[in-house]
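Encode chain A's predicted structure.
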Amino acid sequence: MIFPVAMAFAAANDLFTMRIPNQISLALIVGFLLSAVLTRMPLETFGIHLACGFGVLALTFTLFSLNLLGGGDAKLMAVGALWMGAEQILPFIAFVTIYGGVLCFAILSYRRMVPADMFPLPEWAQRLHRSGGPVPYGIAIAAGGLMVFPATELFRAIMV
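Encoded structure for chain A:
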């Protein structure tokens, strides 16, 4: 249960604070390691999972260095890839991209359609309303991960 709970917590935390604590990424790494041991994941498969995680980390940190993605989002995407492995990495990235587009469209629509002073908004909603403000992309990453995780080899091994 660590993967779905941690991803949901990361999404909620990103929405309300625009931060994804390192403890969530660390918990996901430890959870993956424990799951790999408990399911007796073959060493070759374990290495492929690590390669997926590090590959996505390199890509997302490049996006972070170009100021296109937040640091917490980069780490969350990489640990999500760690859990996916080679079999589900492309669907994971595809769903994150699709959900990210929907999320951005929803936030841009919110900014245009709801006047900022129409309601007394909590601070997190005001932050989402600011033109040019940040987008809590952790929501899209979590949604993509939760969508694909049940199709992973690791999930099937855990459920046996």
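The chain has a mean pLDDT of 91.
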